[in-house]
């Protein structure tokens, strides 16, 4: 069993996307700290940033499988597929 403590994550998205991502990440571990939504401006109007700190414990003894790379932005960040809010599919 491996425990990852103090994992810090900044998320960006609509308030609904941030809430869905927080719910999914909390299901994978324990939420140690949750920041406030910080509204973004300019081209990102309607989106917010959110800070999370998590503690995650693996239980199967195997290292976590990395998500398959799907889409890359022009800044080199990988976009991970999250389940949609209605059907649960990616």
Looking at how many chains there are and whether they match, the oligomeric state comes to: single chain
| Number of DSSP E strands | 6
Helix share of residues? 10-25%
Low-pLDDT stretches are 70-74
User: What separation lies between the terminal Cα atoms?
Assistant: 28 Å
Mean pLDDT: 78
Q: What's the alpha carbon Rg, rounded to whole Å?
A: 14 Å
Order of helices and strands: EHEEEEE
Give a short overview:
16% of the residues lie in helices and 38% in strands. By secondary structure, it is an alpha+beta fold.
Features:
single chain, 90 residues, two-stranded antiparallel sheet, 1 helix, 6 strands, 16% helix
Task: Explain what you see.
The protein has 90 residues and is of the alpha+beta class. It has one helix at 15-28, and strands spanning 2-13, 30-34, 38-39, 48-58, 71-72, 78-79. It has a domain at 2-60. The chain is built from one helix and six strands. The strands form two sheets. Strands 1, 2, 3 and 4 form a four-stranded antiparallel sheet that branches. The chain has a two-stranded antiparallel sheet with strand order 5-6. A hairpin with a 5-residue loop joins strand 5 and strand 6 (78-79). It is elongated and about 45 Å long.
């Amino acid at each position: 069993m491996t425990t990852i403590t103090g994992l810090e994550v900044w998320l960006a998205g609509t308030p609904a996307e941030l809430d869905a991502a927080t719910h999914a990440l909390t299901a994978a571990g324990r939420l140690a700290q949750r920041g406030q939504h910080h509204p973004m401006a300019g081209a990102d109007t309607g989106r917010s940033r959110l800070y999370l700190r998590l503690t995650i414990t693996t239980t199967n003894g195997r290292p976590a499988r990395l998500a398959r790379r799907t889409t890359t932005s022009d800044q080199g960040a990988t976009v991970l597929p999250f389940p949609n809010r209605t059907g649960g599919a990616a």
